[in-house]
Specification:
globular, eight-stranded parallel beta sheet, 17% strand, TIM Barrel, alpha/beta
């Protein structure tokens, strides 16, 4: 727990330096703390340090956390793959869903967002590297989904999200980020009101910021090593 303050300061410093290098203002980049498998005590501690946005990957893990932390002014983002049988919980308990990747999911989120609640902020997840094992719309269909999102009540189109192919000796994920930024710009030029490009994690936030990311998703470098499942 004692490392959280230093971890948060380090991430903020990295963002500031990356923005300076890219000629951007640090205020253009939001840090989303990915709290998967981490206890609510750590979330409370980070909130006390000024972190208000948290991302969760699993509905069944997130709901007890959201309930336990209801006394805090937190903004919850769902960032994991979303199955049809979990859309109701996502629509009712989160402020953002970043992993909408098909029309059925968008329509269910729309119909299950309770009347009177603020619109649910939506990012269309794009499988930018066309990996068979990953969720996400193809780059060619992302615009169609974004337009559908605009038409559905209870939803607010915000932007795009991606999880690029892991970097290796023969692949630089910066190329994925460059293609995402190009797609983001093309859809905006086509009239879609996108303001969020969610991409970049602990290991490659600098490359993501350099290529236009407005939201980076940080887990281990904020919270420390993730507990094993079941611990």
């Amino acid at each position: 727990m004692n490392n959280l303050k230093g971890n948060l300061e380090n991430i903020r410093a990295r963002v500031e330096k990356a923005c300076e290098t890219a000629g951007r203002a640090p205020s253009e980049v939001t840090v989303l703390a990915v709290s998967k498998r981490h206890p609510t005590a750590k979330i409370r501690a980070l909130h006390a340090l000024g972190q208000t946005r948290f991302g969760e990957n699993y509905i069944q893990e997130a709901l007890p956390k959201i309930a336990e932390l209801a006394d805090l002014a937190l903004e919850w983002h769902y960032i994991g793959p979303l199955q049809s049988n979990k859309t109701k919980e996502a629509a009712m308990h989160f402020q953002w869903v970043q992993s909408a990747d098909r029309a059925k999911i968008l329509r269910r989120l729309s119909s299950q967002r309770a009347p009177g609640m603020p619109p649910l902020n939506i990012c269309i997840q794009v499988n930018i590297d066309r990996e068979a094992q990953k969720a996400g719309a193809t780059p060619e269909t992302a615009g169609e989904l974004a337009r559908l999102c605009q038409e559905l009540p209870g939803l607010q189109l915000r932007g795009l999200m991606c999880i690029p192919r892991i970097g290796s000796a023969d692949f630089d994920p910066a190329d994925s980020y460059a293609r995402m930024f190009e797609l983001f710009g093309a859809l905006r030029d086509d009239g879609l009101p996108l303001d969020t490009l969610s991409m970049g994690m602990s290991a490659d936030l600098e490359a993501a910021v350099r290529h236009g990311s407005t939201m980076i998703r940080i887990g281990t470098d904020l919270f420390g090593p993730r507990p094993a499942a079941g611990d």
